[in-house]
Write a structure and sequence with these properties.
With 452 residues, this protein is of the alpha/beta class. The protein has helices at 15-26, 41-45, 48-69, 81-106, 177-188, 208-221, 310-325, 354-360, 375-379, 408-420, 425-429; strands at residues 6-11, 31-35, 109-112, 115-117, 122-125, 128-137, 141-143, 169-173, 192-197, 224-227, 231-237, 240-245, 250-253, 255-258, 262-264, 297-299, 339-341, 347-351, 364-371, 385-392, 398-404. It has three domains: 6-142 and 263-325, FAD/NAD(P)-binding domain; 151-259, FAD/NAD(P)-binding domain, CATH 3.50.50; 339-443, FAD/NAD-linked reductase, C-terminal dimerisation domain (Enolase-like, domain 1).
């Protein structure tokens, strides 16, 4: 047997990479981990965590307005962008410190720098060369910036959290979940937001009723949409930026945010030299056990472009360690993953969309309701909840749940358990409602709006 420096060496210290490296060390394996940026990856520093802080911050404008309807007087309300930015930085520094401590306590050796594979077992980090029996690629993905004139004047989700000044006029290119989340955040904090998208409608790939509900709610809030249009160029203007659209219209902006997808971080890693095969979009090609074309090199997380969510990367890491060092190989389960979009109001979804269900099953029942939540009976805010159940008419199994509205993100987590367990519509009907709540409507939809 070859004498390697490490039993498992992980490239990339995002959520998945950290979990794999830590679990390997906890099992007594010689575990190494390298990161050229910051430990914690996109989720901790440029994604989930700071985004949720900013979502919280952006809710207060509506909360202050709603408070007046309930008898509260809120005087002197004012938002200070630098205060939010600094509070976020302080908390992220604390979280990164926890990551470092967890790795050190587990016995993982952490390296800083850019890693490249010189061959199938050799990793170079600067002037240092290391060897590993098994190698894990968990380098994540980065925002895509399209090659248009003036693209260097635009920003991505990497930069928006730390802008020196708050942009009063924001143009967002894209209409996926990242674009919509930032539209709601910045609008809630006081920005004038216009979204530009080359297709028609938001949240492509989501259930159609979610797409309709979200677009309606955001339009009601005052976010503007320019569909079937593209940004052709961005130019510096006297009072900010001039954004020229494909139809010739020019939008004035302080910032332009591109949220047009993400690209796997696989360039300049030496993967070809190591015999690792890539997909056309640069993603690492893996089998059901996250194994690459080389039997001892694995990849998890966004760099594989399977299901690009932080909890999924962590799940894939756990499965990988079980495969390598457990009693039996374990393949990640990518079915019925509950997820949320932190728009305002938020989205919660799990399981099959209606279109997906109709493509796979012969007999589909659809249940749907739309109502104003009790809170807004007094505020009179034009904000609604939409809940939809997709049910297999033959087996009565609930195939999908889709929700837009108050508490959707929290509710869908619990529903994820039920859908995973194979809950039936009859079992939901037999469940007592908790009144008055938003979630009670899930067990009160007795009559389908469509059958077959």
């Amino acid at each position: 047997m070859a004498d390697y420096d490490f039993d498992l060496f992980t490239i990339g210290a995002g959520s998945g990479g950290v979990r794999a490296a830590r679990l390997a060390a906890a099992k007594g394996k010689r575990s190494g981990l390298v990161e050229e940026w910051t430990v914690g990856g996109t989720c901790v520093h440029r994604g989930c965590v700071p985004k949720k802080f900013y979502v919280f911050a952006s809710h207060f404008a509506d909360d202050f307005d709603d408070a007046a309807a309930y008898g509260w007087t809120v005087e002197g309300r004012r938002f200070d962008w630098p205060t939010l930015v600094e509070a976020k930085k302080t908390e992220l520094r604390r979280l990164e410190g926890i990551y470092h401590k967890v790795l050190a306590d587990a016995g993982t050796k952490l390296f800083t720098g850019h890693a490249t594979l010189e061959d199938a077992h050799t990793i170079r980090i600067g002037a240092n060369t290391l060897s590993a029996e098994n190698i894990l690629i968990s380098t994540g993905a980065s925002p895509y910036l399209p090659p248009i004139d003036g693209a260097e004047l635009a920003i991505t989700s990497n930069e928006i959290f730390d802008l020196p000044e708050f942009p009063k006029r924001l143009v967002i290119n894209g209409a996926g979940y990242i674009a919509l989340e930032f539209a709601c955040i910045m609008h809630g904090l006081g920005a004038d937001v216009t979204m530009v998208y080359r297709r028609l409608g938001v949240l492509r790939g989501f259930d159609e009723d979610i797409r309709i509900a979200v677009q309606s709610e955001l339009t009601e809030k005052g976010i503007r949409f320019r569909f079937e249009a593209e940004i052709e160029r961005i130019e510096q203007a006297e009072d900010g930026l001039a954004v020229t659209l494909s139809g010739g219209d020019v939008l004035a902006a302080d910032q332009v945010l591109f949220a047009t997808g993400r690209v796997p971080n696989t360039a300049e890693l030496g993967l070809e030299a190591a015999g690792v095969t890539l997909e056309e979009n640069g993603a690492v090609r893996v089998d059901e056990y996250s194994r690459t074309a080389q039997s001892h090199i694995f990849a998890i997380g966004d760099c594989t472009d399977r299901v690009n969510l932080t909890p999924v990367a962590i799940h894939e890491a756990v499965c990988l360690i079980e495969t390598l060092y457990g009693e039996a190989p374990r393949a990640p389960d990518h079915e019925s993953i509950a997820t949320a979009v932190f728009t305002q109001p938020p989205v919660g979804t799990v399981g099959l969309t209606e279109d997906q269900a109709r493509a796979r099953f012969d007999n589909i029942d659809i249940y749907r309701t739309r109502f104003r939540p009790l809170k807004h009976a007094i505020t009179k805010r034009e904000e609604y909840v939409m809940i939809k159940l997709v049910v297999d008419g033959a087996s009565d199994r609930v195939l999908g749940v889709h929700m837009v509205g108050m508490d959707a993100a929290e509710i869908i987590q619990t529903l994820g358990i039920a859908i995973k367990a194979g809950v039936t519509k009859a079992e939901m009907d037999a469940t007592m409602a908790v009144h008055p709540t938003t979630g009670e409507e899930l067990v009160l939809m007795y009559e389908p709006m469509a059958r077959g």
